[in-house]
């Protein structure tokens, strides 16, 4: 499927409706069944796909609406991870999860979610997974000698699942590693774990690195300087970063990014309900074009849209698409 | 009838209670009180916590008519401190409007508004005027506003508490520096600056600690003093004169600091407020027999006070509402005689009372809850509350919190020193406000709801007693972003 120049997509999650939050909580209170919740998730995902299509995105995700958050969705599926179900009060909170032995290999059930996405849109798709560094920071390690070894084993266990997604038609997979920004001292081994995760996966791989979006707020502040030159060792084809909220100062760091990499730039601030205008979006894209050619540029929000209301999320995506169209027109002339 | 004894400070509890019960029984036996009325009566003794308040000695709170409710609440609140000997019976009769010959309560009163949420009450207009024209008020009363505080001074300025806060802050900066994440400019915000003493003291300590440890953070400090009263900001300047080059004075509304400081979103490393939340517009809910009610109020000046004001200040009783509006719009200078304007302000404020009624929340199709508070959170919080409870919604405090935390740096912390109810069961111990503190309003703050809203927004909210002054009722709310 050919993509236009400056393809537009989301980072992963779409707005979580209030009613879905309440129904997830009902499930934890054992007032609705797992079967009902699955049906509810299917319906919500279809609606998220439809919204992305209506907003005019070129690459669609499932909106990650089945996921409570970026950790628990994987922690619950990883064999060998023990979860204290009593620790969660609100669906978005993290479980207290831990590993007390070597992780066994086994299917994680992500392929089914990808197939659902694939079956419900004609457009190009992207499937997102949380990376081993981030998972290793939130799942308590009580077995491995170091976080690094834990992360490497997480990568080993998750790798076959990514291969299966690729085999099922998942041509574009994004690995989310926001915790790199909080723990830049881990970055070197974090990239090694990332490389192990995607080894032999026949798909385009993106890595998304932001400054956190927990409860719609940044978890850290700083500069992307720490990414270079280590990121050049990553076996990925695309790096997507947060620029709208933080300003474009760090863009300059990527002027010399080798041609084998694409850059995904955040042009929508997901930590405010204020909706950008298409002209603001266009201006941000033009600024990025001063650094990297259009052929290697993807247009995204800064991070997931999970914490925005549905109307705001939709309006922001629409503005993003419209602003991108402005620039595409300019590039034609 | 249910008799609820809240607290009876310095009163012979048994005799007080006996007097109330005897009076009500007598009214029942005389046929002036219906058996059905008697059965659903709930009498609260002793009702008031603040000595200066908005209630008369006996106050009836009735529910608005609700055909779906089998039994409407009928409440009588009695403040024994205010009851003159022998006056209880008449006061109860008048408030319950019992018997054909009983005059309607407040029939001669001068009403200043229609029934509404306390949050919307004209009382807050007086509160606003007080802070904007503090100097005028102090000049008239002849005393500094801090003298009205318990102990005559603010806990905000306790030197040990301030030193501990500075030490915690320095540790945070050091940790950020070690992680190479310390911003070039170190922003600190104080909202509600008072006389500026805490800000001055805080910077004194910080400068000394920084010099002692050789960290050179002091010069990077940007201290923002925020208050909605320009007059208050001006008064705070002398207290921070030694640090003037680091200070910015910003007029901002504590309900929405983000509005003026949006450019500092996620950048401020420490935000502090003392005795601000208790002075923000609030409203109250009550749960009676499983049903939730909003408490609505109507401000009035009792007839006897209206007559007195009229005689002493030459403002006809019927003109009082209009004159109050002019006072709140233009300040006390509106009268040719400024002194009379100040006296009018003072007298009306002293005399002002709030009539109350309960309105079933089912009658309000779209109840507007404070920002960040969802209906299911309120229901969840009430699950652990006493079955019969009246509580603050602390809507102003919740709004302020919601509009302040986005300013915090991801590693920053918010400290709020105030009087918090941290458990709904504390409402069994008495009802805490609203009261009058000099010319302003004071209210306890519902910490339970603050914690709920904070947690849902991704913040850990803790309360610790203010242990620096023995007997202090204040607590410190400490908030950091949850990982």
Can you tag this structure with a few keywords?
heterodimer; A: 333 residues; alpha/beta; six-stranded parallel beta sheet; three-stranded mixed beta sheet; 10 helices; 38% helix; 14% strand; B: 483 residues; ten-stranded mixed beta sheet; 15 helices
Would you write up a description of this structure?
The complex is a heterodimer of chains A (333) and B (483). Chain A is of the alpha/beta class and 333 residues long. Chain A is built from 10 helices and 11 strands. The radius of gyration of chain A is 19 Å and the shape is globular. The mean pLDDT of chain A is 95. With 483 residues, chain B is an alpha/beta fold. In chain B, strands 1, 2, 3, 4, 5, 6, 11, 12, 13 and 14 form a 10-stranded mixed sheet that branches. Chain B starts with a strand and ends with a strand. The mean pLDDT of chain B is 89. Chain A binds chain B through residues 18, 22, 25, 89-90, 184, 211-212, 214-222, 271-272, and chain B through 180-181, 183, 265-267, 374, 376, 406, 409-411, 455-459, 481-483.
Major sheet characteristics of chain A:
6 strands, parallel
Sequence stretches where pLDDT stays below 50 over 5 or more residues of chain A = none
Poorly predicted ranges of chain B: none
Which shape of chain A, going by the Cα principal axes?
Answer: globular
Shape of chain B: globular
Mean pLDDT of chain B: 89
Annotate the secondary structure layout.
The complex is a heterodimer of chains A (333) and B (483).
Chain A: H1 18-28, H2 34-55, E1 59-60, H3 72-75, E2 81-84, E3 96-99, H4 110-119, E4 124-125, E5 127-130, H5 132-138, E6 140-141, H6 147-167, E7 172-176, H7 179-182, H8 187-198, E8 204-209, E9 238-241, E10 262-268, H9 278-289, E11 297-301, H10 310-332
Parallel strand pairs in A: 1-4, 3-6, 5-7, 7-8, 8-9, 9-10, 10-11
Antiparallel strand pairs in A: 2-3
Helix pairs in contact in A: 1-2, 2-10, 4-6, 5-6, 6-8, 9-10
Chain B: E1 2-5, H1 13-29, H2 35-40, E2 41-45, E3 58-63, E4 74-78, H3 88-96, E5 110-111, E6 116-117, H4 123-132, H5 134-141, H6 159-178, E7 186-191, H7 197-213, E8 221-227, H8 230-236, E9 247-251, H9 257-261, E10 268-274, E11 284-288, E12 291-301, H10 303-313, H11 320-330, H12 338-351, E13 353-360, H13 375-383, E14 389-392, H14 395-402, E15 408-418, E16 420-421, E17 435-437, E18 440-442, E19 445-446, H15 447-456, E20 459-465, E21 475-481
Parallel strand pairs in B: 1-2, 2-4, 3-13, 7-8, 7-10, 8-9, 10-15, 16-19
Antiparallel strand pairs in B: 3-4, 5-12, 6-12, 11-12, 11-14, 12-13, 15-21, 17-18, 20-21
Helix pairs in contact in B: 1-3, 6-7, 10-12, 14-15
């Amino acid at each position: 499927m050919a993509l236009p120049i400056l393809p537009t997509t989301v980072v992963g999650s779409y707005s979580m409706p209030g009613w879905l939050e309440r129904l997830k909580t009902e499930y934890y209170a054992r007032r609705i069944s797992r079967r009902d919740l699955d049906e509810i998730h299917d319906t919500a995902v279809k609606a998220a796909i439809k919204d992305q299509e209506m907003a005019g995105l070129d690459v669609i995700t499932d909106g990650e609406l089945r996921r409570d958050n970026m950790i628990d969705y994987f922690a619950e599926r990883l064999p060998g991870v023990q979860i204290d179900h009593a620790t969660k009060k609100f669906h978005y909170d993290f479980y207290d999860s831990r590993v007390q032995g070597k992780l066994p290999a086994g299917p994680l059930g992500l392929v089914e979610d990808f197939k659902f996405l694939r079956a419900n849109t004609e457009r190009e798709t992207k499937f997102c997974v949380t990376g081993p560094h981030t998972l290793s920071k939130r799942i308590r390690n009580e077995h491995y000698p170091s976080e690094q070894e834990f992360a490497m084993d997480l990568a080993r266990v998750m790798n076959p699942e990514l291969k299966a997604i690729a085999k099922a038609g998942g041509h574009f997979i994004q690995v989310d590693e926001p915790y790199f920004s909080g723990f830049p001292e881990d970055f070197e081994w974090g990239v090694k774990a990332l490389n192990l995760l995607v080894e032999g996966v026949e798909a385009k791989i993106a890595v998304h690195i932001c400054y956190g979006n927990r409860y719609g707020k940044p978890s850290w502040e700083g500069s992307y300087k720490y990414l270079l030159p280590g990121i050049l060792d990553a076996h990925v084809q695309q790096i997507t970063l947060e620029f709208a909220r933080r300003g474009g100062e760090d863009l300059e760091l990527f002027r010399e990014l080798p041609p084998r990499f694409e850059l995904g730039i955040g042009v929508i601030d997901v930590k405010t309900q204020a909706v950008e205008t298409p002209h603001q979006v266009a201006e941000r894209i033009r600024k990025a074009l001063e650094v990297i050619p259009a052929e290697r540029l993807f247009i995204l929000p800064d991070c997931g849209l999970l914490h925005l209301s549905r109307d705001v999320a939709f309006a922001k995506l629409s503005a993003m698409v419209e602003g991108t169209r402005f620039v595409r027109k300019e590039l034609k002339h | 009838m249910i008799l609820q004894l809240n607290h009876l400070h310095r009163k012979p509890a048994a005799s007080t209670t006996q007097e109330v019960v005897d009076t009500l029984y007598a009214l029942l036996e005389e046929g002036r009180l219906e058996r059905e009325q008697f059965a659903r009566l709930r009498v609260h003794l002793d009702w008031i916590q603040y000595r200066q308040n908005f209630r008369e000695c006996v106050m009836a709170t009735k529910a608005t008519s609700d055909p779906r409710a089998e039994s409407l609440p009928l409440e009588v609140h009695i403040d024994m401190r205010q009851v003159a000997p022998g006056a209880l019976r008449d006061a109860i009769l008048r408030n319950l409007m019992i018997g054909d010959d009983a005059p309607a309560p407040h029939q001669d009163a001068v009403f200043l508004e229609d029934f509404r949420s306390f949050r919307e009450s004209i009382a807050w207009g007086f509160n606003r005027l007080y802070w904007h024209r503090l100097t005028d008020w102090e000049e008239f009363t002849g005393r500094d506003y801090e003298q009205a505080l318990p102990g005559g001074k603010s806990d905000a300025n306790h030197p040990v508490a301030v030193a501990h806060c500075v030490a915690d802050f320095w540790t945070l900066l050091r940790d950020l520096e070690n992680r190479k994440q310390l911003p070039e400019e170190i922003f600190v915000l104080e909202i509600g600056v008072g006389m500026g003493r805490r800000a001055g003291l805080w910077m004194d300590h910080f400068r000394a600690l920084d010099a002692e440890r050789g960290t050179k953070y002091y010069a990077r400090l940007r201290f923002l003093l925020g208050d909605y009263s320009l007059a208050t900001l001006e008064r705070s300047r002398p207290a921070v004169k030694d640090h003037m080059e680091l200070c910015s004075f910003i007029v901002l509304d504590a309900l929405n600091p983000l509005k003026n400081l949006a450019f500092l979103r996620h950048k401020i490393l420490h935000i502090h407020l003392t005795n601000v939340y208790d002075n923000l517009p609030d409203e109250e809910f009550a749960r009676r027999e499983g049903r939730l009610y909003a408490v609505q109020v109507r401000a009035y000046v009792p007839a006897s006070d209206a007559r007195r004001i009229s005689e002493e200040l030459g403002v006809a009783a019927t003109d009082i509402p209009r004159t109050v509006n002019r006072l709140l719009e233009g300040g006390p200078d509106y009268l040719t005689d400024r002194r009379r304007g100040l006296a009018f302000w003072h007298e009306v404020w002293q005399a002002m009372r709030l009539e109350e009624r309960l309105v079933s929340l089912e009658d309000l199709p779209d109840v507007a809850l404070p920002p960040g508070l969802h209906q299911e959170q309120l229901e969840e919080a009430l699950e652990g509350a006493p079955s019969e409870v009246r509580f603050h919604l602390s809507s102003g405090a919740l709004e302020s919190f919601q509009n302040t935390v986005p300013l915090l740096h991801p590693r920053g912390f918010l400290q709020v020193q105030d009087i918090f109810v941290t458990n709904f069961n504390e409402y069994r111990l008495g009802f805490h406000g609203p009261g009058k503190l000099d010319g302003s309003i004071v209210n306890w703050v519902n910490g339970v709801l603050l914690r709920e809203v904070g947690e849902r927004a991704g913040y850990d909210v803790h309360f610790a007693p203010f242990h620096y002054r023995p007997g202090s009722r204040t607590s410190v709310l400490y908030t950091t972003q949850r990982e």
